[in-house]
Write a structure and sequence with these properties.
It is a single chain. By secondary structure, this protein is of the alpha/beta class. It has one domain: Alpha-Beta Barrel (TIM Barrel). It has 8 helices and 8 strands, in the order E-E-E-H-E-H-E-H-E-H-E-H-H-E-H-H. Strands 1-2-3-4-5-6-7-8 form an 8-stranded mixed β-sheet. The chain starts with a strand and ends in a 9-residue tail after the last helix. The structure holds zinc ion. The site of zinc ion (ZN) has 6 residues, from strand 1.
Amino acid sequence: MFVDIHTHIDNQSVIKIVDGDVEKILKTVGIHPWKLDRHFDWSEAKWRNLLRLRGVDFSTSVEMTRFFAIGEVGLDKVHKETFEKQLEVFEEMIRLSESCRKPIIIHCVRAYSEIIAARKKKKAVMPWVIHGFNSSVETMRQLLRHNMYISLGEVLYRNENQAIDILKNIPPDRLFLETDVSGRDIRDVYAKAAELMNCDIDFLCRQIFENYGRLETTDTDSGR
Ligand SMILES: [Zn+2]
C-alpha cells in the first residue's frame, strides 16, 4: 500500500492510495496561495463559492465529510505582494480545519516561522503535513516540535544530500512521501527514499500507512 500524500488530478489537489491495481483518491479542498491576488475579497459568500467549485457543498453538514483534508493551502513568500492576504486566508483555512476536524496539507515557501506562528495563534490541534519539504534539518525539528508531519518528494532526486540528512533525522512516524506535480510513480518515490534510508520499501509502506491512519480523524466516508 503506497500513500501519496500530495498529488494533483485534473487541477485538484488529492491524496492517492495505491494498492496493487486499485487506486483510492481522497479529495482535499482549499485555496492555494498562488490563487490569491491583492484584490481577493474574503467575504463569506466568495470563499464558499471557491470551495464549492472544488466540490464542497456547505449546505448540509453531511457534505463536510466528503473531503479528507484541507489542502493545499499555506504561505508563499515568493509571492510577497499577496502575503498579507495569504495569511488572512490561511487563518481561515485553519479555522475550517479545526471546525470540521480535518488535517491540512500545507504549501510553504520561505515562511516556516509564519506557519508555526499561525498554528500557535489559532491554537490548532489538527495534524498538519508540510508538503514538498526541502529545507534544513533545523527547520524540520522546529516543525516537528509543533506536531507537524513532513512530506518529501522532489528533494529526494534534486538534492540527495539534503534528503539523506532529513531522512536520517526524521522520526519515521512523522514522514510522508509524495509525487505532487512531478508525474512520477509513487512506488518509485518509495523506492528512492528506501534506498537513501537504507531500509526496505515494505517498512516505509507500513510506517507511512500508519501515519496516514493518524490523519484520518473523524472522516468516515472519504472514498466517495
Ligand atoms: Zn501541489
